[in-house]
Amino acid sequence: MARVILPQALADRFGGEVQLEIEGRNVRALLAALDARYPGLGQELEGKVAVAIDGEIHNDPLLEPVEEQSEVHFLPRLAGG
Amino acid sequence: MSDEKKFRWVGTRPIRPDGIDKVTGRAQYGADFALPDMLWGRVLRSPHAHARILSIETGAAAALEGVHAVMTGQDLPDLFAEKAAASGGHDDSNNLAHNVMARDKALYHGHAVAAVAATSREIAERALELIDVEYEVLPHVLDIPTALAADAPLVHPDRVAQGIENPEPSNIAKRLEMGHGDPEEGFAEADEIIEREFSTRPVHQGYIEPHACLAQTTPDGRVTLWSSSQGHFMVRDYTAKLLDIDLSLVRVIPAEIGGGFGGKTTVYLEPIAVSLSRKSGRSVKMVMSREEVFRASGPTLGTRIKLKVGVTREGVLTAGEATLHYEGGAFGGSSVGAGCMTIFAPYAFPHVRSTGYDVMVNKPKGAAYRAPGAPMAAFALETVMDELAQRLEIDPVDFRLRNAAKEGTLASFGPRYRRIGCVETLEAVRDHPHYSAPLGPNQGRGVALGFWFNAGLQSSAGVNLNPDGTVTVLSGNPDIGGSRASLAIMAAEEFGIEYEHVDVMVADTHAVGYTDVTGGSRVTFATGMAIIEAARDVMGQLCKRAAAVWDVDAERVSWHEGEARLDGGVEPAPLSLAALAKNAGKTGGPISARAALTARGVGMGFGAHICDVEVDPETGKVDVIRYTAVQDAGRAIHPSYVEGQMQGGAVQGIGWALNEEYVFDGEGRVENPGFLDYRIPVASDVPMIDTVIVEVPNPAHPYGVRGVGEVPIVPPIPAVVNAVHAATGVRFCDLPLSPARVLARLDEAQSSGSA
Fold first, then answer.
1. Please, are residues B36 and B87 in contact by the beta-carbon 8 Å criterion?
2. Rounded to an integer, what distance in angstroms lies between the CA atom of residue B572 and that of residue A62?
3. CB B453 to CB A75 under 8 A?
4. Which residues of B touch A73 (CB under 8 A)?
5. Do B598 and A60 touch (CB under 8 A)?
6. At the top level of CATH, which class does the domain B19-25+456-598 belong to?
7. What's the CA gap between B417 and B699, in Å, rounded?
8. What is the largest CA-CA distance in chain A?
9. Where are the domains of chain B?
10. CA-to-CA distance for B202 and B742, rounded, in angstroms?
C-alpha cells in the first residue's frame, strides 16, 4: 500500500486524515480510491495539482506508476521562469 | 570523483553556434521581420487603474486614411465565461483572454482596450487618439493592506477565493497551506525565536527586447506568426485557444529572443495581431514600446511575508511558520504557491507551516519571473537565518550547514529529497577565499542560500544525419541562454564526432514535435534528454546498417567514439559515421530519428552567494564591491553558459535588492515606465561576478544535468541585505535598499544609538 499525504487544508475540508495507506498501481487509481473514501476529493485533485512520488515531482501525474512502498504527496502546480 | 566517465565535449567551452549572428546583428529578433503588405498594429490602453468601459466609439479612427482595421474586446470571442463562472471566477484561459484585451472593465493602468492596424506606426497612433472611450472610473486597490481591508473595492466583485470554506467575494483569489509537524511544539522547544515582517515591491523582468510579433492570415483560415517568446508552441496554443482556431492552422516561427526571464511565457500581442490581420486582410506587425512593456506586460508584483523561526542554542532549527501574501495583479495567479513551497526548503525543519494568499490588485497581470515566488521568500528566511546566526554567535555558513537539507530530508513542501547538493554548495562557500577575505571601513559581507525545483515537462527533438556525416538537430525551444551550444555538445558527445559537425536549429511549430516553454531551467535537462534519446536511436540504426554491410547479427555491432565496431574482433575495420552516412542510400535510405518525452528525474538546485558591499554613510548609496555565486549545476555541459546564468541571476537579484521598483501615483498610474526611471543594474554598477560551479550529478540524467537558470536569482536579495546589515548594523526588511531608504534608516539608527 502506498502512503498518501494530503494537504492539511484539503484533509480538513473532506473530514479526512492527512496520511492514508492506499492501494493503487498509479496516480489515477489512488485518486479513484481517495474519491471512494471521501467523495469528491479525487475529483478535486485530478488535473489541478502536481504529485511527488518518492521525492520526484510530476506535473501531469495521472498515469505515473506508484510502487507498493511509495510515498505520494499532493502539491500545488509550479510555473517556471 | 576519479571513477567518473571522461567526456570529450561535455564540460568544454566551444563557441556558441548562434554567436556570430548575434554579435554581428544578423540574428533576427521579434521586431526584425517584415512582409511587403505589412500594416502596423498599435494598442490603445486604459488611462485608469480601474474603470468600467461604458462605450468605445471607433468610427473616426476607422475613417482615417491609412487605417485598415480597428478592433475592441467585442471582436474577440468570449469562450470561457461559463467555465470561469463555474470556478468562482478563476479560469486561466478567461483571465488570459481578458488580459489580452479588456471587455467590460479596464483593470489596470495600461490594460488594452482597443487596437488599430494602419499603413504606418504614426498613422496607427494618430488613429488611437481618435478612439473615444467612455469610462466610469471606479475606486482601485493597489497594495495588499488596501486590498484586504474590510471595505476594499473589489477588483472582481463576482469572484470568491479558492481554498477557503464558504468564501464571500473578496480580493483574495486563493488561499493555500502546507507543512508538517506542529510548529507550536517546535517553538516550545526553541531557545531563540525571531519574528519579522518583510515586504517587496513590484519589479519587472527587464528584458531588453520588447514584445514583438508579425501575423499573417489567409482567407482559408491559416495563420503564420513570427514571434519572440520563450515558447512558440505556447504562442501557438494560447493564440489558437483565445481565437478558437485549430492548432494545425497556426504556424509559429520562433524569432531570436532578447531576454525573457519568465516574462515571455504568455501572450499579449499575438491574438490582437491575428485579429487585426483577419479584419484587414493584410499582415500586421506589432512591437511594444518600452512604456507598454512596463505598463502592460507581466511584472512580478509586491509581497508581504510574516515569518517566525525557532532555534535551539546549539543552532538547530526547531520550527518555522510563515504567512505569505503575494499580489497577483488584476487577475490573481501570483507565485505565492511557490513562495510557500520554497521558503523553508533549504533546511531540515521538524515543524513547519506556510500559509499563502494570492491577492488581486489593480496592477498588470503578474507573470513568471525566474524562480517565480522564491526570491521574495528567500529574502525573508535568509535574513532571519542571518539574524539567528548573529544572535547565537555562530558563523552564518556553519549555522546553515548544521541545518542544511540533504538526501532523505523531509522537505518543507512535502516529499523527501533525492540526491541534492545543498551541503556541497555551502561547503564550497565556506572554503572559498572570498569568504575569509578582509573588509575595509563601511564594508560588510553577507551570505545567503537559495533553492529552486527546476522542471522537466514535455520536449521533442529531431536528429537528421546528413550524407556528409554532419548532424542536424531540431529543437522546439527558443535559445535564451546558450542552449544551442549545450544541445550540440550533448549530440556530439553521444555520436563521438566533432562539435562543429552538429548544427542545432530551433524549429517552428510545424517542423518539430510539441515542446513546452523555455522556462523552469529545463532545456538542457529535458530537451537534452530528447536529443540524447534521438541520437541513440540514430546510433542504433547506424549499427544495423554496419551489421548489414558486414553481414553479421546487429547485436554484434556497437557504437564507440564516432564509429560502428564489430564486437570482439579487429576485423573488419570500423565504419565511421561519415562512411555510413555517405552510403545510407544504398543500405536502407536516409537516417533520422525523433524523440518526444515528458522528462522525468528533475534534479533540484541550490545556490549560495557571498556579497560584499560598501555603504556610503553620507548618501546611503550601497555599492556591491565583490560577489561570488556558488551553485550545484549537477553537470555543467557548457560551463560558460552556466556561469553566464549565475552571473545574470546575481545581477538581476542585486537590482531587485537595491534599486528596482514600480512607482505608482495616487491614481494607480505607473510613474516610471522606462529604463531611465526604473533603474536596472548596468555593467558599471557591479563588479565581476565570480562563479563556482559545484557538480553533484543528477542520477536521473544521462550526464547528470540539473537546471541552472533560475536558482541564481534566489540568494542575491538576502545576500545583499545581510551584507548591508554587516556594514551598517541596520537590518532591512523592506525592499529596495535605495539610497534614500538606507540613509533614512541610518539616520534613525544613529539618533536612537542602535547602529
1. no
2. 50
3. no
4. 414-415
5. yes
6. alpha beta
7. 13
8. 38
9. 19-25+456-598, 33-138+209-258+264-296, 303-454+602-752
10. 19
Task: Give the type of residue at B733.
Answer: C
Q: What is the CATH code of the structural domain delimited by B303-454+602-752?
A: 3.30.365.10
Classify domain B33-138+209-258+264-296 by CATH architecture.
Alpha-Beta Complex (3.90)
Tell me the per-residue pLDDT of B671-714, one tens digit each, with 9 for 90 and over: 999 999 999 999 999 999 999 999 999 999 999 999 999 999 99
**pLDDT per position as a tens digit, A14-60:** 888 889 999 999 999 999 999 999 999 888 888 888 999 999 999 88
> Cβ atoms within 10 A of the Cβ of B676, count?
7
Domain borders along chain A are 2-76
User: What DSSP element (H or E) covers B592?
Assistant: strand B592-598
**φ, ψ (nearest 5 deg) of residue B670:** -75, 125
Checking ipTM against 0.90, whether it exceeds it is: yes
Closest chain A CA to residue B520: A80
Q: Which of residues 16-55 of A touch B (CB under 8 A)?
A: 52, 54-55
Judged by DSSP in three states, B82 sits in: helix
Q: Quick check: bond before B699 cis, omega within 30?
A: no
Would you state the pLDDT for residue B165?
A: 84
pLDDT < 50 regions, chain B: 1-2
What's the CATH code, domain A2-76? 3.10.20.30
Tell me whether residues A79 and B368 touch, CB distance under 8 A: yes
**Whether the bond into B441 is cis, omega within 30 of 0:** no
Strand partners, A20: A4
Q: Which three cell numbers stand for residue B389?
A: 546566526
Tell me, what's the pLDDT at B1?
Answer: 42
pLDDT in the model for residue B518:
97
The verdict on pTM exceeding 0.90 is: yes
Query: Which run of H or E residues covers position B429?
Result: helix B422-430
Is residue B292 a contact partner of residue B286, using CB atoms and an 8 Å limit?
no
pLDDT attached to residue A43 = 83
Backbone angles phi, psi at A77, to 5 degrees: -70, 150
Q: Given CB atoms, is B372 within the 8 Å cutoff of chain A? A: yes
Question: What is the Cβ-side half-sphere exposure of residue B429, based on CA atoms within 13 angstroms?
Answer: 32
B578 membership: H or E segment, kind and range: helix B577-582
pLDDT at site B2: 46
Match 494602419 to its residue by C-alpha cell.
B118
A78/B contact by beta carbon, under 8 A: yes
d(CA B267, CA B262) in angstroms, rounded, equals 12
CA of B531: how far to CAs of B6, B230, B724, in Å? 20, 19, 45
Task: Confirm if B530 and B523 have CB atoms less than 8 A apart.
Answer: no
B265 touches chain A (CB under 8 A): yes
Spatial separation of the C-alpha atoms in residues B555 and B564, rounded to whole Å: 12
